[in-house]
């Protein structure tokens, strides 16, 4: 039951030029805050969304944040970066026909949570660059976005499979994983994303020790599992997959590492939830 995206993918929109430039810039650790500002300022809708999120009650700033530079100074590059990537991708999603706004919001909450979980795990492991881990976390399930926004009939079918017409959960997981990873792979190819992102988008449910970017794909797989187990499952999966023991071991993670990361995730998720709600609130 392959998903067959080869032809329809050609009708997907070209990558947002701001996203492409942001990804390139963030890949380079010498990129300055000024350069990020310059990229963002070329896209007014991203700036508007960034400032709206930055001024949300969560940040509790005494003065209104009215420029990208000010947002970078007050919030930090990492925070600005994560808000911007989220809003740029959100704009992509809105360019499709979104018939399931609630589904879209659940999916975005999941992606934002995996982004934060990936940052926490990468900081603890010290092996993967934080920015790479965060980008990979945010993008890992873009295949779902493609299906939801551009193949609404397939999305409706998936919802039925996981809803009333319950498939055997194991069979359902296999099909769902296969379909959205295939869609993610097609999108990464279409957008010419870096090979790390392509591997993450196409293999995060079956990371292989032999793959070129196992350090990142395995890390995202671990983050994805932990986030789903904490209830941010994107509203799609019929069952929570257990984190395989070999995966944590291959990443050099002990029981204690997992516990510490899990606790940090819980407290950060609580803190970030209002910001995330603000970001996903922009989905129509
Ligand atoms: Fe996934
Ligand atoms: Fe996921």
Give the SSE layout:
Layout: H1 17-27, H2 33-40, H3 44-54, H4 68-75, H5 77-94, H6 101-125, H7 130-139, H8 142-150, H9 152-162, H10 169-190, H11 195-203, H12 214-229, H13 245-250, H14 255-280
This protein binds fe (ii) ion (2 copies).
One fe (ii) ion binds next to loops.
From the helix content, strand content and strand pairing, which structural class follows? mainly alpha
Kindly estimate the percentage of residues that lie in beta strands according to DSSP. Answer: under 5%
Small molecules in complex: fe (ii) ion
**Termini separation:** 31 Å
Order of helices and strands: HHHHHHHHHHHHHH
Largest sheet: none
Please tally the helical runs, counting DSSP H or I stretches of 4 or more residues: 14
Provide the residue-averaged pLDDT.
79
Radius of gyration: 18 Å
Residue ranges: pLDDT <50 for 5 or more in a row? none
Task: Report helical residue fraction.
Answer: 55-70%
Pick out its properties:
284 residues; 14 helices; single chain; mainly alpha
């Amino acid at each position: 039951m392959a998903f067959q995206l080869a032809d329809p993918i050609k009708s997907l929109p070209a990558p947002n030029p701001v996203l492409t430039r942001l990804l390139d810039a963030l890949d380079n650790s010498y990129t300055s805050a000024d350069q990020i500002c310059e990229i963002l300022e070329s896209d007014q809708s991203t700036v508007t969304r960034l400032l709206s999120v930055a001024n949300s009650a969560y940040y509790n700033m005494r003065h209104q944040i009215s420029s990208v530079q000010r947002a970078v100074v007050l919030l930090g590059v990492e925070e600005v970066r994560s808000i911007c990537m989220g809003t740029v991708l959100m704009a992509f999603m809105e360019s499709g026909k979104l018939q399931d706004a609630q589904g879209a919001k659940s999916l975005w909450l999941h992606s934002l949570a995996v982004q934060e979980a990936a940052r926490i795990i990468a900081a603890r492991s010290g092996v993967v660059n934080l920015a790479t881990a965060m980008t990979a976390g945010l993008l890992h399930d873009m295949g779902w976005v493609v299906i939801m926004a551009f193949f609404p009939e397939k999305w409706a079918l998936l919802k039925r499979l996981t809803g009333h017409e319950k498939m055997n959960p194991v069979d359902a997981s296999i099909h769902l994983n296969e379909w959205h990873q295939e869609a993610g792979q097609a999108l990464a190819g279409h957008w010419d994303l870096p090979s790390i992102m392509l591997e993450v988008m196409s293999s995060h449910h079956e990371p292989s020790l032999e793959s070129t970017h196992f350090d990142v794909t395995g890390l995202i797989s671990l983050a994805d599992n932990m986030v789903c187990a904490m209830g941010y499952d994107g509203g799609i999966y019929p069952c929570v997959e257990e984190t395989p023991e070999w995966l944590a071991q291959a990443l050099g993670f002990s029981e204690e590492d997992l516990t510490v990361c899990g606790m940090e995730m819980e407290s950060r998720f609580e803190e970030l939830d209002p910001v995330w709600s603000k970001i996903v609130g922009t989905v129509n």
